[in-house]
Design brief:
The chain has 346 residues and is an alpha/beta fold. The protein has helices at residues 46-52, 104-107, 147-150, 156-168, 186-196, 208-217, 229-236, 254-261, 281-287, 299-310, 326-334, and strands at residues 2-6, 20-23, 34-44, 66-67, 72-79, 91-94, 130-134, 138-140, 176-180, 200-205, 221-224, 242-247, 262-270, 290-293, 318-322, 341-345. The chain is built from eleven helices and 16 strands. The structure holds zinc ion (ZN).
Length: 346
């Protein structure tokens, strides 16, 4: 089969070819619960760029070469002997983690902390024609949703929904939610917030394209990240800051700005990553702010997100690229040229 393979890291992201599209062996069923999915679409994610630059090298054990792609959807191609809920031809979206269902974390629904492989990060992923996954990771898609149109929901959407659900639990009408980074994840997070609560949503981004997408997605206020974004948000929130700040950037000045936009006793949610949180502990006790980490989402989160997508409450802006143009898609993402999410089609 054809696949886009990562052969070596590129710490400066300076190469023209990050991955190589090559012919590789097809994945095989190894255990009774295994499922092989024929990929309909694979989302291209900033995490893929972070993997290429070697940021994940010390976090996970993976040997190069391997296939990137952790935002996958498609059709069941082949099932193991123990699979009962799925058959060949079923349209499915893949929860990104192959969590071990017997662990306590999995039984509590915390798939992210239940061990198991993460295809595209520490095992072969979906920048390919076929992907090996398991029955437990698959959510059946309704007929109205095509795999290529929802593939990014497997991680980008799931992560955005997971954090929006957490934030919406304490966001009351009349309160404010700031979304920093209104692009790929942000535009989904805004729609999920709209579907789950009645807080006023403020989108912060330096890109006019991303802000336009934020407006279409339901943000009431748009703030350009031009260096004066903290003052602009304080102004919009009567000098208090927002009850929830969701930071989809997590790098550079976004972190300090995000914390400064969070009101006292409010919540700062970190989703994007790569930077460092540095603040005096005294500031934290005086302000009683809560800092919350977020990793992907649970299987039930994915089921709920697909229910929202089916009702048209969460729509994905996607741009399609053939699998053979994986490098173009990765570069367009790096250069901020993708509106919404890039999707590779084998
Ligand atoms: Zn992703």
């Amino acid at each position: 089969m054809k696949a886009a393979v990562l052969n070596s890291y590129d710490t400066t992201l300076g190469r023209s070819d990050f991955v190589v599209v090559a012919e590789v062996p097809e994945p095989k069923i190894k255990a009774p619960s295994d499922v092989i999915v024929r990929i309909g679409g694979a989302g291209v994610c900033r995490t893929d760029l972070h993997i290429i630059e070697g940021l994940w090298r010390d976090r996970v054990s993976v040997t190069l070469p391997y296939i990137l792609g952790h935002e996958n959807a498609g059709w069941v191609e082949e099932v193991g002997s123990g699979v009962t809920a799925l058959k060949r031809g079923d349209a499915v979206i893949c929860h990104p983690l192959l969590s071990n269902g017997a662990t306590l974390a999995a039984r509590r629904g915390n798939d992210m902390h239940a061990g198991g492989a993460f295809p595209g990060i520490d095992a072969n992923g979906g920048y390919a024609e076929l992907l090996a996954t398991t029955e437990r990771a698959l959510v059946k898609l309704p007929q109205t949703l095509a795999p290529k149109d929802v593939a990014p929901h497997a991680d980008a959407g799931l992560t955005a929904y997971h954090v929006a659900k957490k934030a919406s639990r304490h966001l009351l009408p009349g309160e404010y939610a700031v979304v920093i980074g209104a692009g790929g994840l942000g535009h989904i997070g805004i729609q999920a917030l709209r579907a789950l609560c009645a807080a006023t949503i403020i989108a912060v981004d330096r890109s006019p394209t991303a802000l336009a997408l934020a407006r279409e997605s339901g943000a009431e206020h748009l703030v350009t990240a031009d260096g004066n974004e903290v003052a602009a948000v304080l102004d919009l929130t009567h000098g208090n800051g927002a009850e929830a700040v969701i930071d989809f950037v997590g790098e550079g000045s976004a972190i300090a700005h995000g914390l400064a936009m969070t009101r006292n006793a409010g919540f700062y949610y970190v989703v994007g990553y790569g930077g460092k949180i540095e603040l005096p502990t005294m500031d934290l006790i005086v302000s009683e702010k809560t800092i919350v980490g977020n990793l992907v989402g649970t299987y039930p989160d994915l089921v709920e997100l697909i229910a929202l997508a089916e009702r048209g409450r969460v729509r994905l802006a996607t741009r399609e690229y053939p699998l053979s143009q994986a490098n173009t898609a990765l570069h367009d993402l790096k250069d901020g040229k993708v509106k919404g999410r890039a999707v590779l089609i084998p």
